[in-house]
C-alpha cells in the first residue's frame, strides 16, 4: 500500500510527508455507514426521553436499560486500561461484542490485558480494530512520528476513523467515560447521540477512580500493571506518561501539548 503512495507522490526525502496529514488515506471511509431513518428517529426519541433519568444512574441500571431499549446490537469499547466494562457486559449483556482499538502504538502490557480479556470473557467476542495503514506505512506516507508532529491527525487516523468504520453494524456504543477523569468530561451525559446518530452510552460515568479500583478488587478483575505504576489513564505508549499523586488523572496524556482528548468522546 505504501509503495502506491510513493509512486503517486514521489519524494527524495524519506522523512518528508508525501500526503497532508489533514487528509486521510484515499478511499477510506471516515465515518460509519448511516443508520436507517427509523433507527435514527428511535435513538433520538430514546435520548430525549431517558437522558435526564440516566444522568446519575448506576452502571447496572444503564446496562439493563440498554438491554431493554436499544433498537439493535450495541458494541462495548475497551481501552484495556481496566476491564470493568467486560465484567459488567458478562453480567448484563452476555454475547455483546467488545471492541479494542489496536493503534500499534500500545504498551506491551496493554496488549497482554487484551489477550487476557479474550480468555476470561469468551462469550463476549473481542474485535480488534486497526488503522488502514500500518505504523511503517503511516511513517512513509505522512512522515515519521506523526504522533509528535500532528498528534490530532495521528489520533484521527488510528483511533477515531477506525472506530467509526467499525461501528457500522451497531445502533449504539458503550464506553468507559467517567466524569471524574478531568474537566473536559465533568458534565458528560450517560446517554447521548454520537455524530452518526448512534446511541452513546456511558455506564460508569459517575464512577470515581476509587469506585473503579474498589470494583476491580471486589471482582478480582484483570489489572493493567501500569495502573499500579503511576498511570491512572493509559493510551498509546508514545503519548502517555505517569502522573504525580494529586494530578489530574489524564495529565500524562499528550503531556507538554495543549491536546487533552483523542477525539473519541468529542
TrEMBL record:
Signal peptide: none annotated. Its EC number is 1.8.4.10. Pathway: Sulfur metabolism; hydrogen sulfide biosynthesis; sulfite from sulfate. Keywords: Cytoplasm, Iron, Iron-sulfur, Metal-binding, Oxidoreductase. It comes from the Bacteria. Transmembrane segments: none annotated. The keyword Ligase does not apply. This is Adenosine 5'-phosphosulfate reductase. It comes from Corynebacterium tapiri. The lineage of its organism: Bacteria, Bacillati, Actinomycetota, Actinomycetes, Mycobacteriales. The gene is cysH.
